[in-house]
Each structure stands twice: as C-alpha cells, then as structure tokens.
Amino acid sequence: MSRIVTVGAAQMGAIQRAHSRREVVARMVELMREAASHRCDLVVFPELTLTTFFPRWWMESQEEIDSFYEREMPSNETAPLFNEAARLGIGFSLGYAELTPEGRRFNTAILVNKSAQIVGKYRKIHLPGHAGHEPWRAFQHLEKRYFEVGDLSWGVWNALNGHMGMMICNDRRWPESYRVMGLQSVEMILLGYNTPRHNPPAPDHDRLSEFHNQLVMQAGAYQNGTWVVGVAKCGVEEGCEMIGGSSIIAPTGEVIGQALTQEDELVVARCDLDLTKSYKATIFNFDMHRQPDHYRRIVEQ
Ligand code: CDT
C-alpha cells in the first residue's frame, strides 16, 4: 500500500517593499505552474508570502501598518492564484497577515484543496521577537506588536488524501507544536518561515541558523512520525538576509529534498503518507508508550 502526495515546496526569494502583491502573485503562479508540470498535488508557500517581512520595521502610521494585511482571502489581488489552482487542479498552502472584520490581526496560514476551496486555517501561536521599539537592533522583529497569539490551536484536516496540519515559522522550534498535531495523527505538516540569519540578541547563534532550522524540523518529523514540508522566504530583503534551506523531510527524519538557492525555487518530492505508519505503530505508538501523567509541568503556567 502507498498513498503518494507529490509536494512542491515553493521557496520564494526576497520580496522588497516596493514589490506589489500583483508581482508577488505572478511569481507564485509561475511556481504553481512548474509544480503542475511535475504533477504535484500540493504547493506549499512560505509565511507572510504576499509582502516583504514587515515586522522588521517599527511603524506608527496605522495606514502604513494596515497596508501589509489582507482583509479578505481570496481578494482581487490573490484571486489569480486561486483561479490558477482550480484550473490546474492543485492544492496549496499560503501564509499571510490576516486582518479580521473585528479588527483582530493574526499571522495566518490556509490550506486550499484542489477545487480552490479553503479547507483549513491556522493562526501562528509562537510569536517571536518583541513588542516595543528597540532601536539598538540592526532591524526589529515586532511580531508581538503586529499580531495576536493565534486562537485556533493546531488543527489537522482530512485533505489531499491525508491528515494535513500547519504551523508557522517559530512554531517549528517548539516540540509542542508538532506533538499537538501528532496526537491528531498528522501525516504531513506544512510550514513556512522567514528566518533572518542575524539574531540581534544572540549573534553567537547566527553561524548555526541553517543547522538549527534542520535540527528542529527533522526532529519534529521523526518524533511524530510525520512528513514535514518547510518552506522559506529568503534572500536579502531590504538589507536583511534570511536563510533558505527549504526542505521536504520524511517521517524517518531524513531530508529527501532541499533547495539549493536563496531565490524562487521549487523542490518536488513524492511523499508516501503510509511511510508514517510504522513510526506511529511502533517506536512512537503514543497510546502504548506516552506517559502523560509525567508531563504535567508542560501545561502549567
Ligand atoms: N518569522 C519567524 O518566526 N522568525 C523567527 C526568527 C527568530 S529570531 C527573533 C524564527 O524562529 O525563525
């Protein structure tokens, strides 16, 4: 038995502030067409794909801040992506800044099926960085200013022939993110990231950026018997270098496909969801081997 999902990890190179959504969506459509030519079932785009990574700036003008958010999905600007996906019969996931009708702001990812219907939504829970202006930094990381903590936990959806989950960027460094989905029998986790190489409060970590990226995604995949598709927005954006290394990782913990550039690049792999089974049934059989009575501290405040 095998259940193959052919995945395209659609890494995106830098998106500058001057780039319009129309230009970005055109690049995404190009990657989607390439994925379709490889018979992909699913294309995974990065975190906050549609604009430059705006939390790097302290902004006070509400109009300026609002310009980075989506009030509807799809919108006039993103409709071409949904239309092309429906025409090609390909699913996708996409990260964007969400502004709800109630005025709430989230760092959000959606899962879209092969009929271009939104079937899953996740709002980022682990928001890194800081909320106040810290001018000593080379650049800001103001996710705590621009977003609320997500209110949807980590869902798992029956879609694209499997159990699909999502997390966003910093979530990948926290084992709990994977485990909440692991406990829902997730088979493939889709995740986008924007990771500056330089971390101003801890510059000694900079040389390890790619290593830590791989370490957490490979561990999360293996320890939960799931595929992980990690997709970067990378390259030098407004003078800030962000790492690439978009990877498709098997439940074995092995990287089976990886981007080589820091530009728009599609990485394709045929992923057998049934490869998750032997991990979920043996070494990580949660019902048989977990000891939740001894994990209480994890959920204490
Ligand atoms: N986007 C995002 O979550 N980036 C973080 C940067 C951490 S340093 C503040 C990451 O974990 O990659």
Automatic annotation (TrEMBL):
One of its GO terms (molecular function) is hydrolase activity, acting on carbon-nitrogen (but not peptide) bonds, in linear amides. PROSITE patterns: CN_HYDROLASE. Keywords: Hydrolase. Residues 5-275 form the CN hydrolase domain. Signal peptide: none annotated. It comes from the Bacteria. InterPro entries: Aliph_Amidase/BUP (IPR050345), C-N_Hydrolase (IPR003010), C-N_Hydrolase_sf (IPR036526). Coiled coil: none annotated. It holds the Pfam family CN_hydrolase. This is N-carbamoyl-D-amino-acid hydrolase. It comes from Phreatobacter cathodiphilus.
